[in-house]
Amino acid sequence: MTTLWIFFIFMNMDGFLKIAVCKETRDQVLIITPTTQEQVDILKNVTSQYETALWQPVSPVYMKEQAEVHLFVPGESFETVTSLLQDHDITHRVSLPNVNELIEMQTMNGTDPRSTSTFYERYHRLEDIYDWLNRTAHDNPRTVKTILVGSSHEKRPLYALKLSFSDRPNRKAMWIDCGIHAREWISPAFCLWFVHHSLSFYNYNKEITDILNNMDVYVLPVMNPDGYKYTWTTNRMWRKNRAPSHNPKCVGVDLNRNFDANWCTEGALPYPCSEIYCGAFPESEPESRAVADFLRQHKDSIQLYISIHSYSQMLLFPYSCTLEEAGNHNDLLEMVQEAARKIRTFYRSTYKYGAGAKTIYLAPGGSDDWAYDLGIKYSFTFELQDRGEYGFLLPPSRIGNACNEALTAVKTIALKVMEKTQAPKSPAAV
Prior knowledge:
Elements: H1 2-23, E1 28-33, H2 37-49, E2 53-56, E3 69-73, H3 75-87, E4 91-96, H4 99-107, H5 126-139, E5 144-151, E6 157-163, E7 172-178, H6 186-201, H7 206-214, E8 215-220, H8 225-233, H9 286-297, E9 302-310, E10 314-317, H10 329-347, E11 352-355, H11 356-359, H12 367-374, E12 378-384, H13 399-421
Parallel strand pairs: 7-8, 7-9, 9-12, 10-11
Antiparallel strand pairs: 1-3, 1-4, 2-3, 5-6, 6-8, 10-12
GO molecular function: metallocarboxypeptidase activity; zinc ion binding
Keywords: Carboxypeptidase, Disulfide bond, Hydrolase, Metal-binding, Metalloprotease, Protease, Signal, Zinc
Active site: 383 (proton donor/acceptor)
């Protein structure tokens, strides 16, 4: 009889396991809309008391009535969080029920460093990006140079590529940085895409050829390598760098609140546990200090600064740290307006545009504001796809479209900058 019971249990084990799996609650993303200040306060408490990750807005300080909140909720907290929302009649729905599958999709084949036709339509581990940097410079010795800008808190190198298609002295330049926030994987993917497009279509595409004939381009694919590495190994939702603080439970500084542009005023916080922690002082972090030092050294040649982020589909310019308008506000507005128009025409995607503080919210200590105050008067932040459907978990199948939209904006704005800054040609002699 005992033998029969063992046989019965063994034969039905597969069914037992399937039932257990079905009952398991997976990580999910909720879209929540608080309608009263009381609901806003409850939601702020939920995000601080439970293991969740705010996607939008980035911090509870930005929550307000009638504004959507996108909240990542791990499986172990899901029932508790949703019960609390229901108890207080807070409107919510599941936006992404399959977070784990999306993450698996993003990391699939991510370790393959070989250059293939689909290489640029996948996300890649930090080590593979380093390998790509070295191979790109090695394969294009006349036009591409690797530059060590600095190193991270955990001593990982900050490598940039310099694309230069002319030996003419005193050439002007543009700077593009990606991956300042670790979880925004589409951002480093764009930096790789941009370099690949530039090298592949020089002399074939008129726009990129005109840009590269007139400007050098610096591209930093991963400004926050420690955080980016951490998103691949430990916590996909990590945002900040990995610098420890006096509180052992709170790690990391928001590098885009760490620059000296109205540093740590409204829109940033001095608390190490916050996602918008500004750091101990401006440029306290080796990553932001390295970029700032490089830009200071090259401020006379760099005319255009672009920082790539996600998500929300926005083309932003200074200021984000104050509601005051930049001196050349109208020029900057004209550029992003034209870029958004072209994206809508070519790809049918809508991008909001404008000064950061008025378009989103106050966000002091940002790299674009700091670069603008340094003297780089054409300074921008791009927020790539999407508008919340997948958020930070944009599937690999969307990389190409997202990068082409951003590429359209970069080329449109770079050509406008050239048009406004090139010295007028001397009239021909008669």
